[in-house]
Amino acid sequence: MSKVPFMDLKRQYERIRGEIDEAIARTLQGASFIGGPDKEAFEKEFAAACGAKFCVGVANGTDSLFLILKAAGLGAGAEVLVPANSFIATSEMVTAAGATPVFVDVDETTFNLDLNRVEELFRARGHKAGGKIRAVIPVHLYGRMVDMDRLMDLCRRHEIFCLEDSAQAHGARWKGGIAGSLGHAGSFSFYPGKNLGAYGDAGAVTTNDEELATRVRKLANHGRIAKYDHDIEGYNSRLDGLQAAVLRVKLRHLTAWTETRKDRARRYDQLLKDTPKLILPELPPREEHVFHLYTVRVPKRDQVHAELKNRGIEASVHYPVALPFLKAYERFQHRPADFPVAARLQGEILSLPFFPEMTDEEQDRVAATLKEVLSSLSN
Ligand SMILES: Cc1ncc(COP(=O)(O)O)c(C=O)c1O
Hints:
Layout: H1 9-30, H2 37-50, E1 54-58, H3 61-71, E2 79-83, H4 89-96, E3 100-104, H5 115-125, E4 133-136, H6 148-158, E5 161-165, E6 173-174, E7 177-178, E8 185-189, E9 203-207, H7 210-219, H8 241-272, E10 295-297, H9 301-310, H10 340-345, E11 349-351, H11 360-376
Parallel strand pairs: 2-3, 2-4, 4-5, 5-8
Antiparallel strand pairs: 1-9, 6-7, 8-9, 10-11
Helix pairs in contact: 1-8, 2-8, 3-4, 3-7, 8-11
The protein binds pyridoxal-5'-phosphate.
């Protein structure tokens, strides 16, 4: 029997092949490989899609985090709050900018930063405005929004900068506001497998702050806006013309793909509800979750994962080791008891095959196989 892939980008390409091939041919003919009209148009279109005033296209989502931190002056001496469950880019760039990541445990229902823990941390530290904690990076993990009302209220009261890591949350909304436009800046990845994915690496910064946008734009292009006018030293982190052309095509399909993701998530919910030993992701109001991933919780996760693989179902784990427990962060000497929820989740979470182009039959097979595997687990 054929496999059910975790995701299949070839299927997506087949469906939009005409538009993509035309956009690539146009870029090649125009020879606008770095910057150019597609990059400029994409920045405007993506800013509008996020409800943000400004967008700067950059080389990838890791750089977009770094450039925002640099542009906001978050370097040596600054502490930046980061959720204990995310991809390493989130914390890695805090260190790269010269600041220190401070991990905060996550909420077991939303999988996101636990805002009670954030408040506790401020209290425990006796934090005052202007103190060491200078920023927070909410990651809208798996496509689900962090409670941005409560978080921004905390940020205002404690005078800290909010960088939304929206790498997994293109188009997700919190009460009408869109991911990437609610904090002081938003960071996006267009890694190919993301909800809006390029055909290579690409990323973007969004913000309503013109000064911050200009600083990011300069930093991403050797400290300049005009050709040899280098106001400051910067980096090379630019969005390719070809990627911008691809992203413009795909952006036109994003809303429809997102709706399909939400329908597929609800379909999994129906197929899998009331399954013993299985915890399904909560389905918040439709707009708050764009389901980059459909992540369930199971006992004996590694065994379940391996059994699914044996039966042709490609699941995945995001992420098998929570950030504080990675070897890369040995220096902090964190223990499971410091982040009890993240410590538990890392052994339970399992992302099921999930992409807009998957078929009902494939979804049925995933659900039936998962039920079979769970019921065969010894207690
Ligand atoms: C939450 C999160 N932040 C940052 C990144 C980094 O993005 P990129 O791979 O484009 O550098 C990713 C993507 O892998 C991500 O999932």
